[in-house]
Amino acid sequence: MRRWILTGDNAKHWKSQLHSRADWLWIGGLLLAALLLYTKNLGDLPLRDWDEGTVAQVAREIWRSPANWLHPKTIGGEPYLNKPPLMHWLIALAYTIGGVNEWTSRLPGALLTALGIPILYSIGREIFHYRQPAIFSALVYLVMLPVLRHGRLAMLDGAIVSFFLFTVWCLLRSRRNLRYCLGVGIGLGLIGLTKGMVGLLLGAIALLFLFWDTPRLLGSWYLWGGIAIGSLPVAAWYAAQWWQYGHQFTDRAVVDQSLSRIWQAVENHQHPPWFYLLEILKYCFPWLIFLPSGLLYTWNHRNWSWAKLILVWGGGYLLAISLMGTKLPWYVLPVYPAIALAVGVQLAQFWQQPYPAKYPRYAIAFLTLLAVATWAASFYYSPWNTDPDWELQWILAAVAGTMTFSAWLAVRGDRQFIAVLIWGMYVALLLFVTSRHWVWELAEAYQVKPVAALIQARTPPNREIYTSFAYNRPSLDFYSDRRVISSNFNQLQQQWQQPHPYLLLDRPTLERLKLPAIESLGQASGWMLVTRE
């Protein structure tokens, strides 16, 4: 039998290899789990309005015309000046490979968001002295509902979070190897090419952490050189847009869509300063149970690097967006990795307690309360209800079973309640993403695809259609490949006088208009498409 004699440097080398192999196994396992959860049934539901519909339209315009890769335009031929085009480029590339559909529209964002889970584990390995907090932090982040939901949508924010995670990881590595400063610049540059001025805020968060934890790096030319190199593509793209559009670009992209959101509510998205706290309270259970004690533990160890990172990252960013005039639910996404780190620290503390452990009564009480509430909700959607929902019942039953078993193990003082809680939430979220409920905004208005098919089949290309619906629906524009404009009663009457008008009307509005010489082109989802004979 071969015997290993570990002495001196040989023992250290063997231990280093062992740790490296274990880390790669964890990274691989987390990545596979994330890819399954983030890509399963990705294209089964239509794109939702606003962000998804708009992003898909711009990406299709880029895909159709090489001239639009640098200066994207929307369906109406108007310049798209709202956001930089990195995600639109990636989606257009996906269209080139897999065609224009829901799956290719959502795939780039889903893959980038899924990559954030192993990156967060790597961040944990940089800041914690042992592996358990890194593992629990990554697993908690894996099963956070708001990150999963927005990461699977054709939006920009999931990718933003992963780019920032990469930036933070490079920042932590650069404390030991200055070459990683280039990665800091690349990460911030990717953020800038995705969502513009957000890169300045997240860059300020990163530099504030350095100022508190490792101020010597702020005087390093490697850091500022890396940031300068990463910023060059962003500066070049902004210069190209300004050269093409002049003050129209600066007024729209820089002022209206970025700077003005700081001091005023854009498009009526005005909420009180505690709006994001309510968002976290609504969607972060069951992990909010462990967050207060995790934050208290973090504050008590604020002289450690990991605590400084959590406090600056979570507290600094949350304070900044809470003071902004414009508030949207997905703006809070970059806070969730910091929350996961704080919760992971607390779960690691629970895991290390000897059996039988005495876990806090409030944690057991909240788990029990969640179990009772979700069992009640599951029974509500059972076949005994007049309007049963099998999908929602099974999702709630999975959550209820998880909470019940976890509470029972916690009462017994068994640390396995943590593993059951994480695994049960993963299974429940798998059921969730296979259901029709994961894009719940689709139930807020009529089904868009049948109406879009009618418009596409019965109207000429590049024609504008006017509708009596209350607001414009970018998803309808995308699927119909036409511009469908929301109009009031007087505007509809005026459009009817134009040559070859096309109106999409609900029946009450059609009866009220009393249009002469009407020709019906068909109806779908309760809407009629009409023109003049």
TrEMBL record:
Keyword Nucleus: no
Protein name per the record: Glycosyl transferase family 39
Cross-referenced PANTHER family: MANNOSYLTRANSFERASE YKCB-RELATED, UNDECAPRENYL PHOSPHATE-ALPHA-4-AMINO-4-DEOXY-L-ARABINOSE ARABINOSYL TRANSFERASE
Pfam families: PMT_2 (PF13231)
CC per GO annotation: plasma membrane
Subcellular location: Cell membrane
GO process annotations (BP): lipopolysaccharide biosynthetic process; response to iron(III) ion
Membrane topology: Multi-pass membrane protein
Native source organism of the sequence: Chroococcidiopsis thermalis (strain PCC 7203)
